[in-house]
Write a structure and sequence with these properties.
By secondary structure, the protein is α+β, with helices and mostly antiparallel strands. It has five domains: about 100 residues, Rossmann fold; about 70 residues, ATP-grasp fold, A domain (Dna Ligase, domain 1, 2-Layer Sandwich), CATH 3.30.1490; about 260 residues, D-amino Acid Aminotransferase, Chain A, domain 1 (2-Layer Sandwich); about 120 residues, Glycoprotein, Type 4 Pilin, CATH 3.30.700; about 70 residues, OB fold (Dihydrolipoamide Acetyltransferase, E2P) (Beta Barrel), CATH 2.40.50.
Length: about 675
């Protein structure tokens, strides 16, 4: 076995690999750019080597710099993680020449499967069903338009060397094809150093389901079940689960066997993923093979008890897999929610800055993967697990130079509803402050009736949130539970206030029992009867709720029991009440005396400032291009400028007709959120 392993990556996946290597007794080497000097993966590794400036194109994907780090450290093997150099054949070849093991597949498999065009041709030759499309090289946007019309709209424009949703666009007409072709080429060049593009038919109402394969150099090729990855936004996965709620045993077996056959055809070893698109009749079509570890691999680990990173390392060291296909058992259900540094209230645009608060829920071990990472058979009923793979820490910086994903929160339970419920509680208890993040959106999806039913496709987000995410509202019964909790918390805060004031010995007598709790436009008149163990909150309709908690004023997380059921709230103080966040809802909850509530209804509503004459920068980013000039008349939907942030290009368009009065920036300028880009007359 190797004595020293270098991880040619950063962030949460580097930390993930370090954990397994440490468990195996292998020393680890981290690499880092200037932006990652104080990163978590650097702190966790046994040693760390600096490799250059912040942009990945000048550090993490520069092969020579990684090779220098290998030589300096004396590492015997390299794990590439995902992204960056993980599917770069030249990198694998360079390692082979140096006599350093690549913790991944052979170069021939990377060449055959890492390129989407080549992999589709091989799959077709092997008799694997593929989506109709054009696999040849496309010279320019006009040729892309011609091909798209021949295939028939809608089409998917993809970067040949792409992954993680980068370099991908859906086009529904000629204009979107022209724009999408160039944007995909630019993103592909920036992210992967390869701007080749191909086009295929976009299948409507699809599910994205992938098969995890694992193979060694001794002729063993296995599949470890499937992952449902249909909850996607901008072609990037947001929530994954294993197994899929849609597949039956027969389809699972057919997909698994086909995935293994494809892997054998290219001499594949290590962990890999074969991705399929599945229609409503369970017909499946090959999309691509990712010759690396997938972001969503933890859900497979949670239902199989197999540490995929450990097996990758052992296969790279020449060991045989210690189990056969019949040994693979799928136990329970696992969910993964990707925590992104994106603002859901600004159409999920990237957010950067300092994590002023980062408190993930406590990890809980249960299910088939025990403390040593070994299979423990059937899991005890009623247990749940919580796992959080992360690469950040409180006080750390979220950089504009890298992918916006900062953590992967996973839960496991004996069944799907149990895994969803465990995820709901875990998301409610995940504290993140200082940046925009998608925790409210993840919570909203977990509450969504369609998601809970399992009736999902890759169009779920577009269909259920066509106007973007504007926040979630609580159902009436949930709102009443929050009202009861807020009333009890307010009473505790009022008692503390009277004690601090020192105005009366019998402090509790100064706190009244009648209050009006206001949230979501509703008034809840309540009466509180308190004792040493908690409080009983009675509503005007006669319903009473028992509230108990150890919350104290100033705590930003409240864990309560309301009528015997757990309730987790993120709590902030506002005048006359609380800012409460739970289950995706962000609420201003006011707790007032009846007289205060009466007067509050007479107060005028404060209106936000009028910014309709300005194009404001929606995210921290770099101005790539300005498409208009002063004095030009623009039409609704017309492209105004392009901003690049976190490796993604974003085209900003006019919301209505107007005339450009002023342009306050130029290509190459870095802007903060809400800086003015264009002023209209």
């Amino acid at each position: 076995m190797f004595k020293k392993l270098l991880i040619a990556n950063r962030g949460e996946i580097a930390c993930r690999v370090i954990k397994t290597a440490r468990k195996m007794g292998i020393a680890t080497v981290a690499v880092y750019s200037d932006a990652d000097r104080d990163a978590l993966h650097v702190k966790m590794a046994d040693e760390a080597i600096h490799i250059g400036p912040p942009p990945a194109s000048e550090s993490y994907i520069v092969i020579d710099k990684i090779m220098d780090a290998i030589k300096q450290s004396g590492a015997e093997a390299v794990h590439p993680g995902y992204g960056f150099l993980s599917e770069n054949m030249k990198f694998a070849e360079a390692l082979d020449k140096l006599g350093v093991a690549f913790v991944g597949p052979p170069t021939g498999a990377i060449e055959a499967m890492g390129d989407k065009i080549t992999s589709k041709k091989i799959a077709a030759e092997a008799g694997v069903s593929t989506v109709p499309g054009y696999m040849g090289l496309i010279a320019d946007a006009e040729e892309a338009v011609k091909i798209s019309n021949e295939i028939g709209y809608p089409v998917m424009i993809k970067a040949s060397a792409g992954g993680g949703g980068k370099g991908m666009r859906i086009a529904w007409n000629d204009l979107e094809t022209r724009e999408g072709f160039q944007a995909s080429k630019n993103e592909a060049k920036s992210s992967f150093g390869d701007d080749r593009i191909f086009i295929e038919k976009f299948v409507t109402q699809p599910r994205h389901i992938e098969i995890q394969v694992l193979a060694d150099s001794h002729g063993n090729t296995l599949y470890l079940g499937e992952r449902e990855c249909s909850i996607q936004r901008r072609n990037q996965k947001v929530i994954e689960e294993a197994p899929s709620p849609f597949l039956d045993a027969e389809t699972r077996r057919a997909m698994g066997e086909q995935a293994c056959a494809l892997a054998r055809a290219v001499g594949y070893t290590s962990a890999g993923t074969v991705e399929f698109i599945v229609d409503g009749d369970r017909n499946f079509y090959f999309l691509e093979m990712n010759t690396r570890l997938q972001v969503e691999h933890p859900v497979t680990e949670l239902i199989t008890g197999i540490d995929l990173v450990e097996q990758m390392i052992r296969v790279a060291a020449g060991e045989a897999l210690p189990f056969a296909q019949d040994d693979i058992k799928l136990t329970g259900w696992a969910m993964e929610s990707r925590l992104y540094a994106e603002d859901p209230y600004r159409n999920f645009l990237p957010s950067i800055g300092r994590l002023t608060r980062y408190r993930p829920p406590a990890e809980v071990q249960a299910g088939p993967l025990n403390a040593t990472g070994k299979w423990q058979g059937d899991a005890p009923k009623g247990e749940t697990a919580v796992r959080n793979d992360t690469g950040v820490f409180e006080g750390g910086e979220i950089s504009m130079f890298y992918d916006p994903m900062i953590a992967k929160l996973c839960t496991w339970a004996p069944d799907r509803l149990g895994a969803i419920n465990a995820m709901r509680v875990a998301l409610d208890g995940f504290e993140v402050e200082g940046i925009g993040h998608n925790l409210p959106f993840l919570s909203a999806v977990m509450e969504h009736e369609r998601f809970v039913s399992g009736n999902i496709t890759t169009a779920f987000i577009a269909e259920e949130y066509p106007d973007g995410f504007t926040g979630a509202s609580l159902a009436d019964d949930a709102a009443q539970r929050v009202a009861a909790a807020a009333a009890a918390m307010h009473r505790v805060a009022e008692i503390r206030r009277t004690r601090v004031s020192g105005r009366m010995d019998n402090h509790e007598r100064r706190v009244g029992g009648d209050w009006i709790v206001t949230l979501q436009g509703q008034d809840f008149p309540v009466t509180i009867a308190a004792d040493h163990d908690g409080a009983t909150v009675s509503f005007a309709d006669g319903q009473a709720m028992r509230v108990t908690s150890d919350w104290t004023p100033g705590d930003q997380l409240a864990r309560l029991m309301v009528d015997g059921a757990p309730l987790v709230l993120k709590v902030g103080k506002i005048p006359g009440g609380f800012r409460i966040r739970t289950r995706g809802a962000d609420l201003k909850v006011h707790v007032r005396t009846p007289r205060q509530a009466e007067l509050a209804r007479l107060m005028p509503e404060k209106l936000p400032p009028d910014t309709s004459k300005f194009l404001l920068c929606p995210m921290p980013g770099l101005i790539v291009k300005i498409d208009v000039e002063i004095g030009q008349e623009v039409q609704e939907g017309q492209a105004l400028c392009t901003i690049e942030a976190m490796k993604m290009e974003n085209i900003l368009r006019a919301e209505r007709r107007g005339v450009v009065a002023a342009i306050t920036c130029a290509p190459g300028d870095s802007l903060a959120v809400d800086e003015i880009i264009i002023e209209f007359a």
